[in-house]
Write a structure and sequence with these properties.
The complex is a heterodimer. Chain A is mainly α. Chain A has a domain of 114 residues: Cytochrome c-like domain (Cytochrome Bc1 Complex, Chain D, domain 2, Orthogonal Bundle). Chain A is built from seven helices and no strands. Chain B is globular and about 60 Å long. Classes of the chains: A mainly alpha, B mainly beta.
Chain lengths: 185, 601
């Protein structure tokens, strides 16, 4: 019994370490890498889209990165357009509808590039690491990050339960243009 | 003439005189100055109907007796399913309809069955402008003058189009969307000038009003709402009524250093014009950011009313409705120009049902506040001190950094937002479509980043006392109180229109278009359209000589953004907290963009 308890404590300790694990000085060669995204479900001639960079797990599985992202989300006025995930002039970020894709790298790409119907481009305005962190927090708004990495509380007026307790809304593949995003016929 | 006949004649004369006197006393109702509200010609050429902003038509074929038979005559799709805040105009035999972004202007031929399209004009605004439109991609209407249609575009351009052919006459860029500058208001034309203002009060935009040449679009003058007197066009003619508006460069000194450069005071509402005084009147928007703790001072000249010389733009007077505004209380609402007997004295006034929850009656010659009476439940203010003009605040409802202040009424969109009231000279009443909402508010520090929102407040709204969220009220201006009120499930975001047929029209966000008895408030007719109504009803005489009523359906705007922008109701703060009060709207209506025209069979 005692042994089981020790194993459990160790296991918890190890997972907690991963949750908090972070590089204080990320490798510039890695952090400078812009995401590879595919916005279409059609790959001519068949096959699958090129693999993502593999950075996603590092960011969205890490409580530090998600919590930094939550801070920057407010600092850089993301909340001005997307509120606390429910949206405003910009679309909601806590639902399953993603015009330009809801995977981490796709969100990173959207923040880098901007999008034609109003999303500003933040390239050169934020560091690469900040962009990945914000994107990781955005993923947590749909509860699409490991629950031990998601934030457990809000510092301000409580807009909704903490991200870790929200209903999980996995993105619908391929990105979906909501009717309001469509141009008139 | 015999003596008896003479006595009889005198009696009759006296009787006639007496009758005239008593009836004139009984009928001494407020009325717009005739120069600002000319007699009816069956057209509707500007959104507010006339310079006095009465939204009243003398047409009476559709009236309390016939309205029950009102039927849809024809419909038309604007092709855009976003918030339709615009007003259908009718000039001659053509109807003009302006869609929200991308703001296609349609001219419809009223002489043909079903009113087919004569032409359409596409200004092709920059799509990125949608990202800096605070409250849906709305437009509040085109305006017509001397053969031209004028309107503003979301990417801050003003356009003049030939009303006959649809050919673009000129198009000028007046703002930069990279700084959050957009345009949503309906222009006003006086003689050779078209007046337009800038939107973006939630983006730290420095507000202004410009007069453009109607023939070229060239700027004749530009008056900022903040900054040095020279740029606000404050000079020797400036004679405000209250001491708090007097002093040099208050647009700089009532701000923290350089705060006025991102200080708001945008101009996106309604303009009035008094031809006798040659003054234009308009309100300025909220100061930026919303969080008041980041901008100590009175924040001149935001959240107040300007009177300016129509030719030179020189400021004549200013009254600040909300000095150091605490709750996003823009003063941009309509200013209805009326002449009335104010306790035995003839006064020229303007009347504004304000976001603060008070109906202001202000002397439009001097800027003196004659009365300010509540039409909404108040918890954050108690009223106005008429000796100083100062808004009386409730200290415990003042925002404190990082603390949630609860039960503030009215809310950020105010007791009533942009959607204008109507005034009937027949009843002497002002018909006010408005909200019944309260809110919780937390001020949080925000940074100014050009092209992104500059707000600094976490807000959630909810229904006010009674649980209903909207009210349609008939207001007695002299008595300063409601005559009757219709409670509505959702906030009212549509304009009102009154007619000589004894009717008042308005629409609801769940899609009911209603005609009510202007005297009693009884609903005489209603029709369910395809989407919520947030537009401005108008009425006109068709080429067939019959009266028609027109309105755009299509929910959206700040209140309806939950539907038009597909917002997620699980976030109480979505759409700056409005979503919390509108969680059930998705179940009550869907998106739309349809013009409805009604007539008698």
């Amino acid at each position: 019994m005692k042994r089981i308890a020790i194993v459990m404590v160790l296991a918890l300790g190890i997972s907690a370490c991963e949750r908090e694990d972070r590089e204080t000085r990320p490798d510039p060669a890695v952090s400078g890498m812009e995401p590879k995204v595919t916005l279409s479900s059609i790959i001519p001639g068949g096959g699958s889209p090129p693999p993502p960079s593999g950075l996603a797990g590092q960011y969205e599985g890490n409580a530090y990165h998600v919590s930094q992202g939550k801070k920057y989300y407010t600092w850089f006025n993301c909340n001005g357009c997307h509120a606390n995930g429910g949206g405003d002039s910009g679309p909601p970020l806590m639902d399953d509808t993603w015009i330009y894709g809801g995977d981490l790298e796709e969100i990173v790409s959207t923040i880098y590039e901007g999008r034609p119907n109003g999303m500003p481009s933040f390239r050169g305005k934020l560091t690469d690491e900040q962009i990945w962190q914000i994107a990781a927090f955005v993923r947590s708004l749909g509860n699409n990050v490991p629950s031990d990495a998601a934030s457990g509380r809000n510092d301000d007026l409580n807009p909704h339960p903490p991200e870790g307790q929200l209903e999980s809304q996995p993105p619908i593949d391929g990105g979906t243009a909501p009717p309001s995003g469509q141009m008139p016929q | 003439m015999s003596a008896r006949k003479f006595v009889y004649a005198v009696c009759v004369l006296l009787c006639v005189l007496l009758c005239a006197v008593t009836s004139s006393v009984a009928q001494q109702l407020p009325a717009p100055p005739p120069s600002a509200a000319p007699s009816e010609n069956g057209e509707w050429t500007m959104p507010a109907k006339n310079y006095a902003n009465t939204r009243f038509s003398d047409l009476a074929e559709i009236n309390v007796d016939t309205v029950g038979a009102l039927k849809v005559a024809w419909t038309f799709s604007t092709g855009v399913n976003r918030g339709q805040e615009s007003s259908p105009l009718v000039v001659g035999t053509t109807m003009y309809v302006l869609a929200p972004y991308p703001q296609t202007l349609y001219a419809l031929d009223l002489t043909q069955p079903g009113a087919p399209t004569r032409w359409q004009y596409e200004p092709k605004p920059d799509a990125s402008a949608q990202g800096v439109a605070c409250c849906d991609v709305v437009n509040r209407g085109p305006t017509f003058s001397a053969g031209k249609i004028f309107f503003t575009t979301l990417d801050a351009q003003t356009v003049a189009v030939d009303a006959e052919t649809g050919a673009e006459l000129w198009k000028v860029k007046l703002g930069d969307i990279a700084k959050g500058e957009t345009m949503t208001m309906a222009p006003l034309v006086v003689r050779d000038k078209v007046y337009v203002g800038i939107s973006g009060g939630e983006y730290g935009v420095r507000g202004w009003l410009q007069a453009l040449d109607v023939d070229s679009g060239k700027t004749i003058w530009k008056a900022y709402s903040t900054g040095p007197d020279a740029e606000v066009l404050i000079g020797d003619d400036f004679k405000p009524y209250y001491a708090t508006e007097k002093g040099k460069d208050l647009g700089v000194s009532t701000w923290p250093p350089n705060g006025w450069e991102q200080g708001g005071g945008t101009v996106w509402g309604w303009l009035s014009y008094d031809p006798d005084l040659n003054l234009i009147y308009y309100g300025t928007g909220n100061p930026g950011p919303w969080n008041p703790n980041q901008r100590p001072g009175d924040n001149k000249w935001t959240a107040g009313i300007f009177a300016r010389d129509a030719d030179t733009g020189a400021a004549r007077w200013f009254y600040q409705i909300a000095p150091h505004d605490l709750h996003d209380w823009d003063a941009i609402n309509e200013l209805v120009l009326l002449d009335l007997d104010w306790h035995g004295e003839q006064r020229k006034v303007l009347v504004q049902p304000g976001r603060t929850g008070l109906v202001y009656v202000i002397d439009r010659v001097t800027g003196e506040v004659l009365s300010a009476e509540p039409f909404h439940v108040l918890t954050a203010i108690t009223g106005v001190d008429l000796s100083t003009g100062q808004l009386q605040l409730v200290p415990e409802k003042m925002p404190v950094e990082n603390r949630v202040i609860r039960d503030i009424c009215p809310t950020a969109p105010g007791a009533k937002d942009w959607n204008p009231s109507a005034f009937s000279p027949v009843t002497g009443l002002l018909y006010i479509p408005h909200n019944n909402l309260c809110m919780d508010w937390e001020s949080v520090t925000t940074s100014y980043i050009a092209g992104t929102p500059f707000v600094g407040a976490e807000v959630r709204m909810f229904a006010g006392p009674g649980g209903h969220r909207g009210e349609f009220s008939a207001w007695d201006i002299i008595a300063g109180k409601e005559r009757w009120t219709i409670n509505e499930r959702f906030p009212l975001w549509s304009a009102a229109m009154a007619t000589a047929g004894g009717l008042v029209f308005y629409g609801t966000m769940d899609g009911w278009f209603k005609a009510v008895n202007a005297e009693s408030g009884a609903v005489l007719w209603q029709f369910k359209v395809d989407s919520g109504i947030i537009g401005q009803p108008t009425t006109f005489l068709g080429p067939d000589g019959k009266q028609y009523i027109a309105v755009l359906a299509g929910v959206g705007g700040w209140a309806g953004a939950i539907v038009s922008n597909d917002l997620d109701p699980r976030d109480a703060t979505a759409a700056k907290g409005f979503v919390n009060a509108m969680q059930d709207l998705k179940g009550a209506t869907t998106k739309g963009g349809t013009l409805y025209v009604f007539g008698l069979p």
